[in-house]
Model the fold of this input.
Amino acid sequence: MKRSAKSFATLLFLCSTGAQAETTLGRLELRWGDPAVSNSPQVAEHRLLVTLVTDQGLRVAIDPNSALAGAEDLYSLAGKRVAIEFSASPPKTNGLRMAGAIVPLNSAIDEKISGTTTWVTLMCKFQDNSNEPKSLAFFQSQYGTAPGQLDHYWRQVSYNKIDLIGSKAYGWLYLPRPRSAYIRANGSANLDQLFYDCTNAANSAVNFAANGGVQGINMMFNSDLDGYAWGGGKCATLDGIYKCWSTTWNPPWSFNNLAPLAHEMGHGYGLPHANNSDGDRDPYDNPWDVMSDPWNNAVSDSTYGRRPKHLSTYSRARLAWVDSARRITLAAGSYRLNIGLDRASLSGSGNAQMILVTLPGQPSSRYYTIEARKRGGEYESNLAGDAVIIHRVDTQASTPAFSVDADIPPANRSNNEGSMFKPGEIWTAPDGAFRVHVQAATPEGFLVSVCGPKPTGSDPCFASRITRMK
Done:
């Protein structure tokens, strides 16, 4: 999906600001840290690391909140060349640089992921731990084309826009240091050292430059790291190619289940977390998107643990997987009746699969998405129900897409009735800007109308059963 970018004139202005600010060029490295969570009632804390890898090869750690505020859409810049204006005062908070404006060096940012995206799995064991939790055959089979395997999953979730042809596993390989050497004094894992040592251990066996360079590197470690699995990017030179490689760092609890592994690979493709609307700090409570909650409402697999659910259409659209013919864009306040909205998991749909509603008077970074979800298939059969799901989007938020909830207060996890809109129900947006009427079920989804504010006279969006208003 192409996103608008701040103008080149803004970049020139940043480079001329002199003593009041410092402007630095480089590539933006984003990494998400995800704890092992499933049904815990406690708020799960996630981590986001933002680093500028300068053109001189220096690594500058950046405060994530300032980076989110300084970019129109921070996550669209993952792995891209940017100019960052660093704040002169205060220069640092908790050892992190404070970012002002973050400007992409290209006039348009294209997040499209398509074609063959080859991954390599590197199985690395610590010098002081000879345990091998899974076999080479297990990791190789994860990339298979059968239901419940990664090539099959990513083909299906991308509507056959990508595949994992040529992906291969290697190991087990000994790291040159014990586990303790990779844990910093503050308890966090030294992800960069793990990357360098693990890829160096595999260098004689793996050609990272084959066919122009692999897409990503899944590193599997034989012991816990710092309580997190990590996914995102690593800017480095491997076999003569310098780029920001899609990268994951996985402890055993992550690679024992395909769902969290797919979640980390999603970060590798550049996808951020999704969320629900309960307002807490937990981004793992929206089971309608594997980029939020990979654990709940997931199908169990006897070999690969929890299978990943699909992505929301918001996450799919970020990577340009929703064709324009399957997407309808409307302005809030307009009327569009009797839209056939097919379930998001249906490949080859003949109807719309995503409705995007823009908000008058609001920046383009804020909008709503509407999609249909139905139980069935290899990954979606354990969903909470068959329903229309609505997400509120703000691309400058730490978790850009929030599933809306008609219940007051919103549920802690959005697999509740308030998050599922079913035939006969209407959802009214805040301030009455627009309404969504789910009219009826269809064989592959729902018949939906998107309407303006409620009129004083006859109402084409009148629901005969339940009216829900947030």
Q: What stands out?
A: The two ends are 30 Å apart (CA to CA). The chain is about 15% helix and 35% strand.
